[in-house]
Amino acid sequence: MIELRDVSKVYQIGDERVRALDHANLHVYPHEFVSIIGPSGSGKSTLMNIVGCLDTADAGTYLLDGMPIEAYSENELAQVRNKKIGFVFQSFNLISKLSAAENVELPLIYQGVRASERRQRVKEALARVGLEKRANHQPTELSGGQQQRVAIARALVTRPSLILADEPTGNLDSRTSREILDIFRELHEQGNTIVLITHDNDIARQAKRIVHILDGRLTEVTL
Amino acid sequence: MLSLKMALRSIGANKMRAALTMLGIIIGVMALVVLVSLVTSATDTVTSEVSSLGSSLLTVTVSDDKGHPIKLSDLRSWVDEQPTVAAIAPYASDTVTGKYDTESSSFTIYGTTPDYCVINDQQLIEGRYLKNADVDNASRVCVIDKSTAEELIGYSDCVGEEISLEGVKYKVIGVVEDDENISITSLFSGSTMTAYIPYTSLIRLSDTATSTISAFYIGASDGFSVDDAERAMTAVLNDRFEDDEDAYSISSVNLIEEAMNSITNVLTILLGGIAAISLIVGGIGIMNIMLVTVTERTREIGIRKAIGASRGTILRQFLIEAVVLCMLGCGLGIFISWAILQIISIITANTALVFRLQTTVVGLSVLFCFIIGVVFGLYPANKAAKMKPIDALHYGG
After folding, report:
1. What sections of chain A are H helices per DSSP?
2. pTM here?
3. Segments making up each domain of chain B, as ranges
4. Domain spanning A2-65+73-221 has what CATH number?
């Protein structure tokens, strides 16, 4: 599913070279629920950006569904993000001018899906996160938990190979966080592959498998 | 369709800013449409009145006489032979210095024959016109127009006075009303004084006229149209110039109409140019606001890219927004122009002038606005499209 082999990424900050990822190796199999845990500055975000095809690695190989990613052009990366990956961000990242349904619809528009099918799939995705009644609300009219559920619906609607969640509960209170994590668990039980990035041990423990990241190096943690 | 809706929504989200941005385009379109419509409507009305009078004379110019030069006697015999032709007047002019007493001024002098008066419908106020005898003897006599008489001599009843043209004394034998055709011509040449002298006198006075006539006017007889006269004279001239139609030209173009058209064209180009510049300024305003919009919406661009928008998609989104902004401004500008022209029409309702929106200039401004939208939208849209998804996503937090 995901295969990282000796992936490195170096940033130049002033005179200093920061090794954000140092020969990282990671293997995620289909239908897995994996947590990646690490403190801030450990290279979590860089890993997330590379796995999510928002950025490319300096060295090493990244295979997504068996296909090497580094050689892809910007437009091909856009297609991979569109069809294979569903993002859930800490800050929700909904477009505030669009309603909940329109936010969920957007990736399907970029795929060129027909209008009637789009409507059907948006309805299904919103129903799955329990927000079918709020479809026409603007993001500002929704609570944080509801906004994050819209974001999850947006990630689901394209039926991606991988759902990538970056601190999805970081901006939410503990009760809402539990609801969101319940949704992720349900999605996993329905056969979705999920990678969850967090700094919180309790949240990481929700996953079947935990990978620890520190100074750009990945280590497997067995429960 | 969908992207058009999205563009309208994001413009609608910032109505005040959009309105101010469009103002540049609105004013540009208004300047273009209103000014050009006014000029063309006004001249259309005037020229249609002028041409409704019908052209009364034919102009012949000879460029190559093929060894058969036209003399004064030829003109006289044609008048006798052709029943459709009432009068033929040779025509040559020069600009000279004229003097009366101590006053001196630049003069346009026309060398011609008595027929000129008939063909050009000149109205004699004082004295008499040139006679055939004056032409035969190359007399030093002249007919001047009213404004020349008043300006140079001081009064219009000046028959018998002598003016000197290029140092040669000419006796004023008559005064005619000002010729409108000539007053338009003199606008360009800068000389305001006009005198008519016998053609033969002009030959002696100036190098521009010789006994070989290269230009003359033809007037049709009563009961015959100008077209009849043109057909008859074309046959005569073809016969003389061995059927070479390039040797001469015969035309019935009205001089006023021609002058009006050239003024209209100059004005239209001038005003259109000024309006085009203000449209370009409006376009720069659009580009400015689009650059601000792109920066403001960096995060949105990042989100769109993260969920799979390609470069082309983002480019199209912002380009369409710029073009829609331009076209909205264009539409509003055209509507306001229409309203202004309606108001002007109401105000001028009791005059003969009719002001109408010119469809060609409307079409032109729509096309121009579209091009401006694309040209000035391309840079901001490209800037948005080139953003890296991670940088855009993490912009400002």
Report:
1. 44-51, 74-83, 100-111, 115-128, 144-156, 174-189, 201-204
2. 0.68
3. 2-50+258-393, 57-253
4. 3.40.50.300
